[in-house]
Amino acid sequence: MRFDVFTLFPEVFEPYLSVSVLGKAREKGLLEVHLHNIRDWATDKHRTVDDEPYGGGGGMIMKPEPIFAAVEDVLGRPPQTPVILLTPQGRLFTQDVARELAQHPRLALICGRYEGIDERVRQYLVTDEISIGDYVLTGGELPALVVIDAVTRLIPGVLGDPDAPEEDSFAQGLLEYPHYTRPAVFRGWEVPEVLRSGDHARIARWRREQALKRTWERRPDLIEKAKREGRLSPEDLAFLARLEQERRGGPVHS
After folding, report:
1. HEC secondary structure over the chain
2. Which end of the chain, N or C, is surrounded by fewer C-beta atoms within 10 Å?
3. Which of 50, 66, 113, 153 is catalytic?
């Protein structure tokens, strides 16, 4: 899969892209990230990419000319690749959105900066807008890295365990179950017996119930969504009903 990233600060990306899962994916040829400095398409001697906003107000606005020139020079006119603007005004980035984006062989990401970006970029160049949360960052570089990371994990062959992406938090609409490793006892705290039992059916059910319980406790909105979408089995629903009953009658025990 190929990402084309349009940014004013390409040097931000390489350290993160060179290590761990993403670094290995690039070595295997499963991931390509091409960084394009928008300033390279500015036409004046100062390589100007921003200007004062029409109508007054604080801050500077990214100019449309170098952005259009950069994207169309790299992707063609009109681009035949999804062009995504990272912005707080975009649709919320979720695991489902990551899966959707992973279906494309190539994606373009535009990283905003300053007070904002000229609206004509949104209207006539961008095909999608994505936000990673309801907060404001200095620029779109960190959101771009988040999108690249989340989408790359879904590419077949990137993770050593082919089932790993489906066991991550949010992959099935739930938070992930607890994890343990050696030693079996640490400072008197023991790993749950079921995980040491060797009974794979019991372990699978325990993990499912722990994921349900953790999601029910911390993100009840995800439980309601899973119910609406029919993702919960009769066993799941019965377990959640027991949790509700125990909540009304006293503390919930693992």
Report:
1. CEEEEEECCHHHCHHHHCCHHHHHHHHCCCCEEEEEEHHHHCCCCCCCCEECCCCCCCCCEECHHHHHHHHHHHHCCCCCCCEEEEEEEEEECCHHHHHHHCCCCEEEEEECCCCEECHHHHHHCCCEEEECCCCCCCCCHHHHHHHHHHHHCCCCCCCCCCCHHHHCCCCCCCCCCCCCCCCCEECCEECCHHHHCCCHHHHHHHHHHHHHHHHHHHCHHHHHHHHHCCCCCHHHHHHHHHHHHHHHHCCCCC
2. C
3. 153
pLDDT at position 169 over 70: no
Q: Is 115 a catalytic residue?
A: yes
Task: Report domain extents, the chain.
Answer: 2-152, 169-249
Q: Does the structure show a pLDDT above 90 at 75?
A: yes
Q: Choosing from 65, 72, 115, 149, which is the catalytic residue?
A: 115
- Choose, from 88, 129, 208, 219, the residue flagged as catalytic: 88
How does the average pLDDT of the chain come out, rounded?
A: 94
- CATH number given to 2-152: 3.40.1280.10
Select from 3.40.50.300, 1.10.1270.20, 3.30.450.20, 3.10.250.10 the CATH code of 169-249: 1.10.1270.20
pLDDT single digits (tens) 85-114: 999 999 999 999 999 999 999 999 999 999
- pLDDT digit string (tens) for 170-195? 667 899 999 999 999 999 999 999 99
- Is residue 43's pLDDT more than 80? yes
